[in-house]
Amino acid sequence: MRHTVATNRVLRRFRVSCLGSFTAVLLSAVVTGCGQDAGNVPVRVDYAEAVEALTAFIEHEMKDKELPALSIALVDDQETVWAHGFGYADPEDSIPATAATVHRVGSVSKLFTDLGIMQLVERGEVDLDAPITQYLSDFSPANEFGTPITLRQLMSHRSGLVREPPTGHYFDNTGTALGPTVRSLNGTRLVYEPTRRTKYSNAGIATVGYVLERLHDEPFAGYLQRSVLEPLGMQSSAFRPDSVLMRRLAKASMWSYHGEPFAAPTFQLGMAPAGSMYAPVTDIARFLSAIFADGVGVDGQVVSSATLEQMLTPQFAPSDATEGFGIGFALGDLDGHRLVRHGGAIYGFATEFAALPDEKLGAVAVTTMDGANAVVGRIVAYALRLMLAVRDDESLLSAEITDAVPDELADRVAGRYALDEQVIEIEKRPAALYAWFREPGLRLRLRTRGDTLVADDRLSYGPRLLPLADGLVLGRDTLRRVSRAIPPPAPGRWNGLIGEYGWDHNVLYVLEKDGQLHALIEWFFLYPLMELGPDVFAFPNWGLYDGERLIFTRDAAGRATQVEAASVVFARRDSGGEAGTTFTIQPVRPVEELRQAALAASPPAEPGTFRDPDLVELQALDPSIRYDIRYATTNNFMSSIFYDEPKAFMQRPAAEALVRAHQRLAAEGYGLLVHDAYRPWYVTKMFWDATPEAYKIFVANPAEGSRHNRGSAVDLTLYDLPTGRVVEMVGGYDEFSDRSFPQYLGGTSLQRWRRELLRDAMEAVGFSVYEFEWWHFDYRDWREYRILNRTFDQLDAGRTVQD
Questions:
Q1: Which of 431, 437, 604, 730 could pair with 747 as two cysteines, CB 3.0-4.6 Å apart?
Q2: Catalytic residues
């Protein structure tokens, strides 16, 4: 459950411009359209126009951010005035999402755990300000400060505990129970003195839940169900769902900066009280109504109005404070209205829960795309503003919509900008313009609004950049363009540390950037690390893991075998192609058997008119282009020979463009080294038939033919002109791993710089990089050529054969 500080800022700072009154449509059409599906709640008539505006915004955001599903509920005091689902709860089986779809709501779970404790406070069973050891005598994280930890501190994130427990943490898929999860904290040390500063801690709320479990000698999930969820009327919610509830659970998606989306894992968390609740938005709507009723749920008083007000009051803050953490709730304002809220982020699900308690208006939304909290945050903020307009009989505000960045502007602003330690890197890609922000450590897509660039994607909305002739304005700061000189090699002492650690569902990347070691954690957050000593580093004092450390363990060869990052041990991952070795697979069938089958088969028939092939040998055009034709040797991913001779052929226009790229690179001191170019179709079929399903994205489907088969694709890398040595890239040629993706962030600055240099040179002459292989480039006219199946000796002889 990631702390959604950025979302909180969005709710405070996001301002929707009033671009004119909403053009009304027939209210009856809105009511009918919103109430047809089972599980949805029809819109109350007075909110119909607002819901139409909100629906249009939701549909825009879902399309723009590629969200599979979204469920939302709006609450006016004791009534859910609209609840609806969009998209598909199960995209594969086309099962629509509704308001009754069950989601994992992540850290919104914490609010219910805290309610359970506050019930005990009301009954005099616990004291919020007593040392926690009064209830958990064996709770003993190292505390050098002397200030004891209390429940109040834990529930308002002021205890100084680590973010994650060593076991049962966010990454732990072993099903660790709550007791061992909390006991594992005894091996940790407080990061900050209790009460001193806010440090968001999942471990802290796990501990709060364990107090409930120990005091009542009852498993936490069952106790919360009976004491909190059922009295609130949340009949379809649970911390440990049964099979009926699981059948209603939406399927969620994960993603990264560099790879394909994948199915979100569904394992239970050891720290269940901090983030393991399952609920539909209609149940969360009942919780909103209970807040507006001063703590009264469907089955009576859940907590008193005085207790609830205490929870909605900033803790460890001046008496006039209006922002910060209350007991559980995050507190702030929305356009001058008191706001209470909480976000939730757990594998594939992003939730925003928000209420205006003085106006008794609230909204909750959940989407099934990991990290998309900024999107649901904007949707909920817009919903509340629309509801306020309805309540006050004012014109509806138009949602703020951004536009794509024109190519001319993207070309002009791409580059690196800096002011002291503040750095922004803007990268132009074929589909979008992106900016890397050193703090908060995110890569954000840029769009335009007027003359301003606006970060607008799944991860954030609102950082605005005003382009100048030689710089950018960010807030009150002006960052100036700086040159992108070739980076120096990373310090040798870090070589054994750089790499991947952890689990398939959540990889920790350790990389070098700008002369500093960085950690990319939880897929999106890139943090600069401070080197404290040999193999010991610290996260920055901001972000998810502020103030915590990384400690590496090396083997006898100096290569790290694991890193303990923020009290969690991440084991080294091995892609099989590191340290200059050649990645290999075990073919699904014997190679010679595959060869015979492929030679006996025929390429797919292709209707249409194609250009006559004009394949030329690359070195015949420029002998300084070097070769390492792996498929003419056994040094390849199948350890077998496929070509009779080490040659490379391409269609003449592509070959001539390649020569221009080679000449362009010479000015930078580099040349091109080719691994493969034209490839007979039967070899493509061998590759496909040999490759296990998990690696299919790295080989072409013979049913469609490869661009290599058309003579319009090339696999290549760089060599250094002065020395003749092949340069080191982030990943190796034909390595079937994430390290092959062109957007992969790992490795060193120098490796990535050379990869980008190659890409820029190739794209400048008409090639485009393949999305999963940094070394594979397709020429722009590849569609104009037919699939070919000629062997190299047939090309040399100039013979025409049946293709």
A1: 730
A2: 773
